[in-house]
Amino acid sequence: MLREVDPRTYRLLAIVFALFVLFLYGPTLTITILSFLALKAASPSR
Prior knowledge:
Layout: H1 7-42
């Protein structure tokens, strides 16, 4: 039997979880994007 969850509590937990995931994967995503930008800048353009 599941309890009914208050919408405010659900929204707060969703925001906290989203911030946690952003904190966890943000640096990896940033480094990946910057490495692709560096590869593009290093390649000779014709």
